[in-house]
Each structure stands twice: as C-alpha cells, then as structure tokens.
Amino acid sequence: MIRYIIFFLFFFNISYAVEFLGDFKQGSFILGKTNPKSNVFIDNKKVRVSSEGYFAFGLDRDRKNNVLIKIKNKKGTKLIEKKVLKRKYKIQRIDGLPPKQVTPPPEVFDRIKRDNFLIGNARAIDSELVFFKDKFIYPIDKYVITGVYGSQRILNGKPRRPHYGIDFHAPEGTPVKSMMDGVVTLVENDMYFTGGTIIFDHGHGISTLYMHMKDINVNKGQKVKKGQIVGTLGQSGRATGPHLDIRLNWFNVKLDPATILNLN
Ligand SMILES: [Zn+2]
C-alpha cells in the first residue's frame, strides 16, 4: 500500500501518469490508477476507468508476451510495455479416484454445458462497481491450504486441466465469508463439477467464485459486504473432501486468488 500513497503525493497532477499495484507475473491481478479522464487499453482492449481513475486487469496462467498498456487523454498517448515474469507451477497427483470423477459420463454432458454457460455469463459482466480496489479478506478463519493456483493435475495417472483456485480445507459446515463487497451474480446449488456455487461481481470484470458449498445464504442480485457470511463450507460437486475452492477472474481470464490475498 505504501507504493500507492507515494503515487498520490507525486503524480496526482500529471495527466497521464499511471501507477500499478500488483506484480507483473503470470496469474496476477493488477490494479491501476490514472487520470480519470483517460481511456485505458490493455493489449489494445479498452477497459473501464472509474470516476477516480481506477482500472483492473489480470494476466493469464501461461502468459508469455509482454503486456501493452495504452493511456490516452487530451495531453496525448502514453504507451507502457511490461514484461511478465514466468512462474513454475506444482504438479499435483491424485490417484484412486472413481473413474467417473475423472471422466464425466456422457449423460451429464448437457448438464456440464449448461453449468459452463451460466458461469461464463456471470464472468462476462462488466459493471461499474469499484470494490476490486480495496483489500480482500480470507473467506474462512481456520483452514489448511490443500490446493494452489496453477498446479498441473494428474488424476489417476492422466494429465488434466490445471487447478485455478485455492483450496481451503476445513470441517464441513464452517461459515464462509465474502472476501469483498460485491453483488451476487450466480447462485447454483448443484453444479456438476463445482456443486454449490456462488459468483460475486466486484466490478470491471473482476469476479470471485466459490465452490463445493454446503448451504448458500445469499440470492442472485443481492449486495454483500466484505466479511458477511454467505454460506457454509461443504463437499458438493466433484470434491474429494470438505473444502472451499475459490477462484478469481478478470472476465474469462483465470487469475491467482493469492494475488488479492497476499498469500505469496
Ligand atoms: Zn480446488
């Protein structure tokens, strides 16, 4: 946060000065601030800028190219190119899973398609909320982290999609809190992979997703406060035991939730 304060002291008068909070490395959430009257483009895609000049974006797990940030306003155009640091991801092997957990049977394909469609729609929301600029909190108080972002999963010996969340292991029924103020954009009690699922919109395409919930206490469209109990931890959907798996997205880009929780 100190870097941020310095920025306010030195640069608030310069019309296309820009400052970033977050590391330019694979999987990172990046918070930016610039003159509110600027247009900001990330890799040539225009992003929303708040009335205070905040904008947000994120870097994919496997991002290799530099990021191109363009700030355009009446004083001119500023181009910034940032290198993206590469990360090494863990390899996580899980053996002895029932085969139908590793490869879904054909009869659930339609259900999975519907689930993906609903999740995709919620992640595509581009609202003017600016909650993403504040500090996120942990969703539960006592936990053991059993899964991290980016791990390559090998289930029953077969390489599968990487894991994009953080798994918090805790007893079933543990209260689960909202990590940040937001608006509930999806509530589903029984999705095939993710079980009881909630998605919160925090603005500008930044959303969080909670999965494997036992009970859910919030409804779609509801506003929630940071720290509010939104349900209880469970093992619904495709889960090997009770845990909360949280995800962080910038639209369809899956980011590392550790980067908003200062976990690494
Ligand atoms: Zn997980």
Summarize the model shown.
Helices cover 12% and strands 39% of the residues. The chain has 264 residues and is mostly beta strands.
Q: What is the CATH class designation of the largest domain? A: Mainly Beta
Number of helices: 4
Morphology: globular
What ligand molecules are bound, each kind once? zinc ion
* Architecture (CATH level 2) name of the largest domain: Distorted Sandwich
Radius of gyration, in Å, reads 19 Å
Question: What share of residues are in beta strands?
Answer: 35-45%
Q: Largest sheet, if any?
A: 10 strands, antiparallel
| CATH domain topology of the largest domain | Glucose Permease (Domain IIA)
Record field, number of beta strands: 20
From N to C, what is the helix and strand string?
Answer: HEEEEEEEEHHEEEEEEEEEEEEH
Distance between the termini: 16 Å
CATH H-level homologous superfamily name of the largest domain:
Glucose Permease (Domain IIA)
Provide the domain count.
2
Helix/strand class: mainly beta
Unreliable stretches, pLDDT < 50, 5 or more residues? 5-13
Q: Would you kindly provide a written description of the structure presented here, covering whatever features stand out?
A:
This protein is mainly beta and 264 residues long. It has 2 domains: 2-82, Sandwich (Immunoglobulin-like); 91-261, Glucose Permease (Domain IIA). It is built from 4 helices and 20 strands. Strands 9, 12, 13, 14, 15, 16, 17, 18, 19 and 20 form a 10-stranded antiparallel beta sheet that branches. A 4-stranded antiparallel beta sheet has the order 4-3-6-7, with no helix packed on it. The longest helix is centred in the middle third of the chain and has 15 residues, at 109-123. The structure holds zinc ion. Zinc ion is lined by residues 147, 163, 165, 167, 245.
